[in-house]
Amino acid sequence: MQATAYTYDPETRSGQVLLDDGTPVPFDAAAFDAGGLRLLRPGQRVRIETDGRGAGLRITLVTLQTF
Description:
5 strands
């Protein structure tokens, strides 16, 4: 699934992405670390992997979108 980086805190390695419908979804350090990224800037297009649905949606991986 694709999303756009919305917030990122380098100290906690956590933040939020915006889904294409504008829904903000938080991610934790484990999801950020799983993607192997060192930094994330707001506005960057990212690829995410998720688990669950609706209110239980959880991001398990954040990485840069590549074509």
